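Hi again,

Forgot to attach this to my earlier email, sorry! This is the prediction with pyridoxal-5'-phosphate bound. I've pasted everything inline since the attachment limit keeps bouncing my files.
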Amino acid sequence: MLSRRAQSLVAESTFNEMWEIMKERWKKHDSPDGFVNLGVAENNLMRAELEEYLVAHVRMAGSNATYDDGPIGSIRLRAALAAFLSLHLKTARPLEAGQIVVTNGVSSALEHVAWALADQGDVFLLGRPYYGEATLGLRPHVRTVAVTFGATDPFSLAAIECYEDALVRAQACGLVVRGLLLCSPHNPLGRCYSREVLCALVALCAKHRIHLVSDEIYGLSVWRKPSFTSVLSLPLDGVIDPALVHVVWGISKDFCANGWRLGCLVSPANRGLRAALATVAIYSYPSSITDHVVAQMLEDNTFTTNYLRKNCERLAAAYTRMADLLQQRDIPFATGAHAGLFVWADLGKAYRRRNPDHIDMDESAVAHTIREALYRHKVYLAWGGNFDSEAPSMFRISFAHPIEYVEEGIMRIDRALQSKACLVDLI
Ligand SMILES: Cc1ncc(COP(=O)(O)O)c(C=O)c1O
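Structure tokens for the complex follow:
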């Protein structure tokens, strides 16, 4: 017998399908019938460089097999993170080790933040489409108030009104709004918020005294202009209580190291939050081996600067190739992405173009038809529903893979879109 809360998750977890697919990976010669996975947010472009660096430069001597400095990361790692993030996020003030709590991935940092800043049933605002609902909801039971933008560009100043409307409406329904979770650069849209818009969001949070949590996990994967502005680089004095502003970052995306499991919360002015996290940090204790390796890597300024630059060059080239392939196959996508690992493609439109007899099919039915067809053609993508998108038949396609892999994936997507799948197939 499981607890009711565990039972309620078993059937519905959005991760179920994803982990299943990852068991059956496509390899051109060894596993030609496997899944091509362009759905998971992994960057495969720098694997060789990362491994080479590990082998040639990282010293295991001095690594610690004890509990060392405790569950929030070693002092050495937190000092390395403070220096690294001060430089790369161009923080308004140099960060200090004591302002950082290290966790085994950004997922844990976000879950901790939700748990510590909101009580069960309280809400965070998230602009659609969004990432992170599960992290807030699954165990902390913090709810999401989805901000809908309609025809308004979610990265524009006009979008601030949409956030405020959602906040006021939630409060009118008796909900306690505790914060706004921003993803910048944005997953899945691949765009950054301008300084101007970030300042306006900070002012909104100040006006309503809610927390601003900025998930900057793709912050150093900005491969085209306009450049990235971290919330930590903004002048906050006199604008907002700085204890309301927090950033999460980790190595999964910018260092192509999802499996190393290392993230952090940076909360420069909120001692209480850091103290609260320390009480539960035993559950997000980073491995001392990862701690030791990452500290050395981040201390190596020459390596990190060159690595990050090369990663961005490769991402830019991979994006261009993906955009070309999509254009060749007449698959529309949102232009303007300049950061992160994804294109946001309108497979609904592509499907309707290929199946004019389905032109009037309802948007959700189209999305489900496409998902089913993709599954049959063994290509995995994240779809609009994963992000509560206002347009469910938008799909997120990851381009941070070797060209051969991407080509195979796009060919399968095209075939799936041609196929005459219909809802009957789903039953
Ligand atoms: C926006 C965003 N935040 C957090 C995470 C989780 O990252 P981690 O691997 O550090 O747990 C992801 C992973 O896809 C992400 O896209």
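The first helix runs from residue 4 to 10. Residues 41, 105-107, 131, 183, 187, 215, 217, 250, 252, 258, 263 surround pyridoxal-5'-phosphate (CB under 6 Å).

That should be everything now.

G.
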